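A.,

Following up on our hallway conversation. Structure tokens first:
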């Protein structure tokens, strides 16, 4: 069990490397970049194994976006307090702290390629699954009107590791997202909103054969960001 906890936890080192890399870019590059950062309110729905283990909750978050030429990056932090949903078999609250890092490269038209990682930690640890995975996919961005932008993204999650064990096939974990941004104050202030869906088709084996133990989360966030 300690080996599995270490596997999930080692993604924390990735977070440090990414943040150090972003903070140590040369000054002449920073002058050409666009940066936005701001707080968010989050609302979540979490299900595990079956709809009987169903939780809902709310919490806080923050998002930072960095853009430079054809490259961009999002760092999204979220902490949600989950409570058993009405009528569910679950009985204990838990906190879910999530880090989602996405690096993008513009390809053509509205399309960008994405690569990143996801790390979600549950506390208490075994009330729900802590999970870490590498993410890869695509993002499509559209200008709906002056200062109004919409983005659609989707992709797969690879190498998923769970605190309680289990495996997922190469295409058994996916994520989808929808985002909306509205500029105000000549682009210095942005109202942000996004919705994300994750599903891990996890399987466990107690020696009698593989058993389905899926994990699913829907997460909505609303907030604002200051751009400079």
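Then the amino acids I'd put at each of the 228 positions:
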């Amino acid at each position: 069990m300690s080996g599995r906890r270490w596997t999930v936890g080692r993604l924390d080192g990735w977070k440090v490397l990414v943040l150090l890399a972003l903070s140590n870019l040369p000054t002449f590059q920073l002058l050409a970049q666009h940066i936005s950062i701001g707080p968010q309110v989050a609302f979540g729905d979490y299900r595990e194994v079956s709809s009987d283990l169903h939780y809902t909750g709310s919490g806080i978050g923050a998002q930072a976006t960095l853009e430079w030429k054809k490259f961009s990056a999002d760092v999204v932090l979220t902490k949600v307090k989950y409570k058993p949903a009405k009528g569910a078999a679950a009985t204990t609250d838990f906190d879910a702290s999530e880090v989602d890092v996405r690096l993008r490269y513009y390809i053509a038209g509205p399309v960008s390629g994405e690569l990143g990682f996801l790390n979600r930690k549950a506390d208490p640890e075994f009330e729900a699954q802590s999970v870490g995975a590498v993410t890869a996919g695509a993002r499509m961005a559209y200008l709906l009107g002056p200062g109004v932008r919409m983005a659609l993204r989707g992709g797969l999650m690879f190498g998923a590791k769970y605190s309680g064990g289990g495996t997922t096939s190469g295409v058994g974990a996916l994520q989808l997202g929808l985002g909306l941004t509205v500029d105000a104050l000549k682009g210095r202030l942005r109202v942000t909103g996004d919705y994300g869906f994750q599903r891990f088709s996890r399987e466990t084996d107690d020696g009698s054969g593989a058993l389905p133990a899926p994990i699913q989360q829907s997460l909505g966030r609303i907030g604002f960001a200051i751009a400079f």
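Helices lie at 2-9, 11-23, 27-30. Curious whether your intuition agrees with the design.

B.
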